[in-house]
Amino acid sequence: GKIQSTEAEDAVLKLQTKSGHQFVEWIPDNVSITLCTVPPVGQRQAAVCLANITSIKDVFKRNLDQFSAMFKRKAFLMWYEMEGMDQMEFTEAESNIQDLIAEYQQYQDAGLDGEEYEGTVQEEHDDIGYAESSIQGEY
Q1: Residues with pLDDT less than 50, the chain
Q2: Per DSSP, what are the bridge partners of residue 19?
């Protein structure tokens, strides 16, 4: 689409400034911006934002819950064992993802308490809506 790279960088900087507590500090370049002037087939424009923020913890938690339910019933386990995997590898993977979730929770708790988080969610959505409307205003 017709957007300048400085506009995209400014929108991301504004989001990081207002919601900096949700971005992990141990990854200094936690947002990647790339502009492509050719939109996908059938679309006027497209945008993607890759960011490493603590809200990814919820996705990991949902996947862990689904995995744990299937692993508890040993669903599809025989197929993996026939390919040479051991049941202990699944237990280790489950433990690793639990550790990852706990680590993201620790960073989220260190950055803010529950009351602040609820107040910033709407602000974050407002920023995203502003960025979308400014991009659409270019056409």
Answers
A1: 114-139
A2: none
